[in-house]
Design goal:
Blueprint (H helix, E strand, L loop, with lengths): L7 E10 L3 H12 L4 E4 L32 H12 L11 H12 L4 E4 L2 E9 L2 E9 L4 E12 L5 H5 L4 E2 L5 H4 L15 E2 L2 E5 L29 E2 L4 E2 L9 H22 L10 E6 L4 E2 L4 E2 L7 H5 L7 E5 L33 E4 L11 E3 L8 H7 L2 H21 L8 H13 L20 E4 L9 E7 L4 E7 L4 E10 L5 E10 L5 H6 L4 E7 L4 E10 L5 E8 L3 E6 L8 E5 L2 E4 L12 E4 L24 E2 L8 E20 L20 E10 L2 E8 L6 E21 L6 E8 L6
Helix pairs in contact: 1-9, 2-3, 9-10
Bound molecules: flavin-adenine dinucleotide (FAD).
Amino acid sequence: MSTFLAERHDGFDLVVVGGGLAGLGAALAAARGGVRTALVHNRPVLGGCSSSEIRVPPAGAGYHTPFAMETGIVYELVLADRARNHDPVEGGLANSVWDLTLYEAVRAEPNLSLFLDTQITEAEVAGGRLVAVSGCQAGSETRWRLAGRLFVDATGDGAVGAAAGLPFRIGQEAQGEYGERFAPAAGWSHTLGNSLHFRARDTGRPAPFAPPSWAARFESCLPHRPHRQFAGGYWWIELGWPRDTVRDNELLRDELLAQVLGVWDHIKNHCPDTREAARNWALDWVGMVPGRRESRRFVGAHVLTQEDIDAGGRFADTVGFGGWEIDDHTKEGMREVAKKPSFEGVNHWLYFVRPFGVPLRSLYSPAVPNLLFAGRCLSASRLAFNSLRVMLTLGALGQAAGETAVLCLRDGTVPGELPPARIRDLQQRLLERDVFLPGFRNQDPADLAREAVATASSEAPFGGEPDASGGSLAAPSAQLIPVGPGGLIRTRMFLESRATESRTVMVRLVAAAEVWDLPALEAGGSAAESECRIEAGTADWVDVVWDRPDLPAGLYWLCLAGEGVVWRHTAAMTPGCPAARFANGRWWFHPGPFGLWRTFAATVFPDPRAYGAEQALTGVTRPGTSMNLWRSAPALGLPASIELAWDGEREVAGVQVVFDTDLSRVNRVMPPFFRAPECVRDYRIEVWAENGWRTVWTERGNYQRRRVHAWSPVRTPRLRLVAEATNGIPEARLYEIRVYAVSQQN
Ligand SMILES: Cc1cc2nc3c(=O)[nH]c(=O)nc-3n(C[C@H](O)[C@H](O)[C@H](O)COP(=O)(O)OP(=O)(O)OC[C@H]3O[C@@H](n4cnc5c(N)ncnc54)[C@H](O)[C@@H]3O)c2cc1C
């Protein structure tokens, strides 16, 4: 006997299992691409580890490298949440506004059917292909069989692929296996642990806390585990080994709960650093669904390795990218609180992970060819997985899986059989939808903007005004500067002396291939060298004359070193121009990870025209080998416009624009009710008609980076975007404008 209904059947073109950010990326991309899609998720709220049930803040490549934030659907969701959420982004603080943002995005798609509370337990394979998945929907007491032509396993644990018989790995590979330089001589089978988060609230009056008898006890210090900020957390309340993170989930939950309450007891009743400050604070929420970091990883058509990361991941079938550090933890977690929770064997802090490409082949296996993987179960060695396993990265790779499904379903094929030309179409589709692929640019033949000449009402000069903060040049420091076709005659830096006598500052120029070229600094050579003297007690612009009109145009690091001197920051980050600093044996983006990047104050003569109108037509929508960004002159204010002109008339029916939202600012530093001040808010699109400009689109209140607009086709020789207002700054910024003869929504 069973209370469950007899099995109900439904059929889809694509069935995505797992509603974390990877699954959401896949399902939304496919549904927007016209695919009849099911999203099946075993929890009542979407978001996986990021949901209000678990509360891990989504992170990505941008946390270690400026301008490396993942874009596309996952970024659109982040911006939508930040614009209306009243809480900050921190461990333990995620709330229902985030859950609802994700839910509303799903509800907005008519092609997307949502099955919440549905645990998929079985996979039906026939003729080597997955034909259906089945499972139980708890609340409705219904057993579902969901048939599909293609599937995406976004369960994190690889539950669907494992049930379908796909080969998978658990644990660390030995060095002999892939030859990875950080791999240990002998592998192991344990994994990163699970965690529970908590959230606390200031009640405004004393809030005593008495732990239950079964809580862990931490009466003395918890070194290596920072807990002075106790509004929510902590990633380091982690337990795995010697247990299995999947099979022992219930046991680990109980053990983790004992740890959370023990840590809270420490904060409230024992820790001399927090006891007083936490007097009025009470636990407001404690997680009961353990967040899981690691379990199965599929062995796909390609296993991404650390060697691939080192080589920059330049694959012909790149469909996404990663850039988080190689982030391993100790196996003991809270079982050994005297040890640091991060694994020092990998020594990842000494290793810069330059954003690297991820190939389509890591998202499927020939063993079950109509199943894509998205999320942490994708095909990577454990070292590479440790760089990929953050949610913004996985969300963008999920979108790649969804867009792959769109093309496969149109062609009636599977990912492994997409010919090279179709993979190039897929890459163009991803770029069009603002998914970043390192080394790739827009080559869409339908984009009429590529045939146009761009001009603008004004262009911003390079440079920015200094503020009061800076970085000491006791450690060599560098600022990325653009050099234009006129070469380099002079640079000017704002330097402050903190010495009692005059000092010499050594100055070098190092050619950089792109904005992320820290390796050029590591290599140690220089294109030119000079020095300057700084008088005691001064704070002023200091010139260095290079007199090099022949210096090839491009990007350069301007490197300074000198005791007793501080290089002042600019008040606002200069778009596309990170700074770097040498510390602990290597170069780092300045002033350090987690997205509060700064620019050192420097200007360049002659002005390099780094932000000209043509930068909006380079086909790349973030800083790369150039700024790829049009900026109007801030001194002239708004409105400002960028215009495209053709050598004759074109029929135009729509535009796609990518505005600047400052990709050096990560979501964790976006405050509640945030709208990127750089983002163009009010604008209109105009076409040239016989008697002047005619408005074909007007937009108000925008805060998103990518916008798509369509109208009835008109013939015109010129089109322009007029930026009337932004969400804060007095200049217009645009990474890309595409123009199409027909609407490109799908
Ligand atoms: C405590 C902790 C701290 C972390 N810190 C960070 C951080 O700061 N930033 C960051 O970005 N990442 C962090 N991570 C890693 C990150 O959260 C995970 O790697 C990421 O969530 C994996 O994404 P995913 O979409 O693959 O899986 P998930 O987010 O786990 O989503 C998969 C979803 O599928 C559902 N599911 C599973 N099996 C089934 C099934 N059979 N049927 C239906 N549904 C199913 C699950 O309930 C789950 O919600 C942390 C992880 C933990 C646990």
